[in-house]
Specification:
eight-stranded parallel sheet, mainly beta, elongated
């Protein structure tokens, strides 16, 4: 599966503090890599061809923000809400995303790499071409999602919920799915290894005879 990377030209990138960039209405071709000194509210815009580095978003409030061709690297996005928004060709790399929410969002060509994403919420999310690589998605929620072209590598889903989310053809064989909760229709056709199958059978209440 070919996941498209963000289309960002290094020749046009300017470095700016996020608050200054927003004040100047600079939302395209920017590198935001300076710490915020105060609370910042951002409304009704699209960040296009931007890089966010080492930004703590705890002081940032998002309202109706789309992200196209964007890289987040070493950022804290815990409890940020991307609900009802578009994310296309976006990379989250080595980010802290505890409790982040993507309810009713649309994700295309999105990569999560080495992210700590416990308690993340994907509900009614439309996902096409996504990579989850070496992330922690434990205790997360996957409810009524539309999934296409999903690639998973060495990711922790322990104690997560999968309901009304078809996982057919998705390979979990090198990831942790211990103690997940699910309905039967969700797990039909998912790809696992023989050791994981023992865990799923036990969750279903089937007992092994010694």
């Amino acid at each position: 599966m070919n996941i498209s990377n963000p289309k960002i030209s290094k020749r046009i990138l300017e470095s700016e503090e996020l608050s200054n960039g927003v004040e100047k209405e600079k939302y395209e071709g920017m590198i935001y890599d300076k710490c915020l000194s105060s609370v910042l509210e951002i409304n009704d815009i699209t960040f296009d061809s931007c890089i966010f580095k080492n930004i703590d978003f705890n002081n940032v409030i998002f309202n109706n923000i789309d992200f196209i061709d964007v890289i987040f690297e070493n950022c804290d996005l815990s409890n940020k809400k991307f609900n009802f928004r578009l994310l296309e060709r976006v990379i989250f790399k080595n980010c802290k995303m505890l409790g982040a929410s993507f309810i009713d969002a649309s994700l295309k060509d999105v990569q999560f790499i080495d992210c700590k994403s416990n308690y993340i919420n994907f509900s009614n999310t439309r996902i096409n071409k996504i990579l989850l690589d070496s992330c922690d998605f434990s205790n997360s929620n996957f409810l009524e999602n539309e999934l296409k072209n999903v690639l998973i590598e060495k990711t922790n889903f322990s104690n997560s919920d999968f309901y009304k989310t078809k996982l057919c053809g998705i390979d979990f064989s090198n990831s942790n799915i211990s103690d997940i909760n699910f309905d039967k229709s969700s797990i039909e056709g998912m790809i696992i290894d023989k050791f994981q199958s023992i865990d799923l059978v036990r969750i279903l209440g089937v007992k092994f005879k010694e």
